[in-house]
Amino acid sequence: MTVDVILLDLGLPDAGGLEAVRRAQAAAPRVPLVVLTGLDDETIAAQALKQGAQDYLIKGEIESRSLMRAVRYAIERQAMDETLFGERERAQVTLNSIADAVISTDLSGNITFINSVAAGLTGWMVVDAIGRQWVEVLRLRAEEAPEAGAAAPRSTAAARLSPNSTLIRRNDTEVSIEGSIAAMHDRNGDPMGEVMVFRDVSEMRAMTRRIAHSAQHDFLTGLPNRMLFDDRLASAISIAPRHAKGVAVLFLDLDGFKHVNDSLGHAMGDKLLQSVGRRLVECVRTSDTVSRMGGDEFAVLLSEVELSEDAAITARRILSAISKPHVIDQHDLRISASIGISVFPDDGRDAKALLQNADTAMYLAKESGRQGYQFFRPSMNHRAKERQSIEENLRHALARREFAVHYQPKVNLRTGAIVGAEALLRWTHPTLGRVSPAAFIPAAEDCGLMLPIGKWVLQTACEQARAWLDAGLPPIVVSVNVTAMQFRARDFLDDVFGMLRAAALDPNLLELELPESALIKHGTSTAASLRALRARGVRIALDDFGTGFASVSNLRRFPVDTLKIDGSLIHLIGGADSDLRLIGALIAMARTLNIRVVAEGVETLAERDFLLGHQCDDAQGYYFGHPVPPHQFSELVRVAQGLVAS
Amino acid sequence: MSGTALRVLLIEDNAADARLLQEMLRRPARQAPQVTCCQTMQDAES
What we know:
heterodimer; A: alpha/beta; Rossmann fold; Beta-Lactamase; Alpha-Beta Plaits; 4 domains; 8-stranded mixed β-barrel; 24 helices; elongated; B: alpha+beta; two-stranded parallel ribbon; 2 strands; flat
């Protein structure tokens, strides 16, 4: 049976009082109920209302109009209750389903509602939080807490919480939050409380911090990057005059770091950079800044320097700290650094000038023998500009065909015949003129141009050797200098064999001159490469012997055809007896090992005679001939041939 | 609700009271409610 309303007498024989209400509601759950009671049962009627009855009527006082009104009102109230319940339910479920935390209060600031997210975030259970002052539950750091009634009483706009608000949870742990507070108003527009909406932004804030940090720091070492360094330098410069103090910039570049990277790999190089970074930080005050500028370059900002000498003291401390062995993956790595120093205000009045001048001074420190420091001097700028100009022009020199290969004769000391030629690179720039190899080769190595240039020299030398043969000259061994980096390049062997094939040149007529340093790293793979070259007939010469390690074990370990004694040793001839004995012993030792000996840099007759007397095989140097262009070299050979024949 | 008669369930064991209430409910001639009367809760529930 479907009904719109129930009129229920509370004095039924089978269900009296509230029992009747309960049963009627159970039988017809959403049907409005109007109870009928006697005059003396009004108390029970009131209880029935609390239990859900819409109204009550007292028998004996009922009249037709009031009965109908009660019936209609009961139906309307029930409908409104249903609607209200639906609205509340929807709001409740919505508020408990959203990701935001919500707390609402009454006008006194007592919590009237808290959703499950807010309960979880604050650490308060809903039942404990309801009725408490909101400041007890939503505890913010003192400096961030809004005043009570933060939202404007008449405004519907929400007031924002402080942008970096931190919520202190019930267990005193902290959470970063952001959110807002809005005032609630009744239908007259009078304030009736506030709603606070907030959310956990700990992860977002941590990510923001990480992004901000990585934008200003070097990812490898964690040190401030160039941007942050520039900021701090500019700041130090602005403060320094007020404190009557100086500011020093130390620009540091590791010596020979490329070789570490090339020989031991980038992973090892990276670890070495990290180790250097840590040592730099240990050498300065916490108020100073150590920055990695990129590659193997670091900069140190010394703020509030009393005297220039303070910067020198720090530079010496840094050089000493860096030169101590770096233990990395069970390797003891040794490295040195060169440092350039500029001081504010003498060497520059802004960050850019100071950094640039410290960089210039660093280059001079490197040129002065490395592992040292140099203060900037204005005269350095000229040399720096010169070097920069060389670097810029070098980049185009190969394409513009500005390079040439000259050949220095190598003479058999016993017969006087020209038996070989050392290929030597020459550069003539249209405006700079002839540039000394001592000036441009280090620059080419630094800017990574040595690989393509070296390849070009090798190819040109092979083609020239072929051309001489075709021109009817006797077979001449052409020697080509190969740097350690070239030798370790992945395609080096293929390139050499390819060039020999292309020039149809007997590999016996090509000799590769390697510095001793090219052999000592990656010994096993180096020996394998050397064996592969020799197996094809290419000769191997160990260059500049006597200037570096001069290790006899290298001569035994690696397949070497020729030992070239450096000119600096040859010039000792005519000096002390001990020097003469040393050179004699070197030649004897090489001959014992069945290695041919070539003396470099021979300039005098006395030197030639000494070498001949000690059975040195071949020699080269100004005494026999300067490096000359190919056509002049062929003339030399023809003349020498005639002399030898006659 | 307009257009259709109101359906009222009256649960009253006293026959005189029940009759009186039914009469009061039917007094407005226009759209008088349909009244169903039960004398016990058990009747109403069934």
